[in-house]
Design goal:
Elements (H helix, E strand, L loop, with lengths): L2 H19 L13 H26 L20 H32 L15 H10 L6 H6 L22 E2 L2 H10 L10 E9 L5 E7 L8 E9 L10 E14 L6 E12 L9
Parallel strand pairs: 1-2, 4-6
Antiparallel strand pairs: 2-3, 2-5, 3-4, 5-6
Helix pairs in contact: 1-2, 1-4
Amino acid sequence: MNRQVQAVVMLLLGGAIVKASTSDMYLRYVKAGLRPFLIVAGLLLIAAAVMTLWYELRGAAGPAPADGSPGHHDHDHDADPGHRDAQGHEQEQEHGQEQEHGQEQEQGHGHGDDGHGHHEPQVGWLLILPVLALLLIGPPALGAYAAGQAGSVLTAQNSASDFPALPAGDPARLTLLDYASRAVFDQGKTFTGRTIELTGFVTEGPDGRPLLARIVLACCAADGRPVKVGLDGTFPTTVPVNTWVTVVGTYDPKTGKDPVNGAAVPYLQVTSWHQIPLPDQQYE
């Protein structure tokens, strides 16, 4: 892969990042607050690629050096034919020696390197894979499978000594992490007399019953971990996994354990629910 090809790959990668960052696609990979940084990074890659291409193409189209042009020495010695003939004879001898030396070097490379020339590393072609993924494939966000393979993010680090009052409105709209933290570490004290609304995707629990889950990001999808809430009450067991739903209910003191890491799994007593379209921002 020469520099021109490297620049083209970098240009495509930068363009793919900018394209994803100016739409909702980037939300499948990173948190919403990282959009400005992605746009700047993509623009820098595009600028670096354009400058590299300009430099390489300008160098390829530049004029050849004039020192080795034919007739350079003839002009200096037109008045002395004898000197010119002697100099020409010396140049022929030097040219013959250079040819012999070049043949020896070629033979040496042929035997010493087992016939293999020097090649640039081909690993750079792997950069095309994320470009194709961004431009053509568009993989979905992490869902039920990832939630089933990873332990709940709900740990003692999520606890707080004093939880604020619930937001206004009936029902009170909470994130899954906020509800789970209040239910486990505050024993649901702030839920007294309140109805709760939660949104997430359906995943299957260890007992085969449905759980409501959401992937929580610290930075990007690579460090995403799920938060899970059990569903009791009127929620049916026949809803397919990865179905996005909004549930309304009340605090349930029942808790379970995540089989992956043993973290607590709180429950919600569901009174109503409905299916929703796939949201643009699927992570918390």
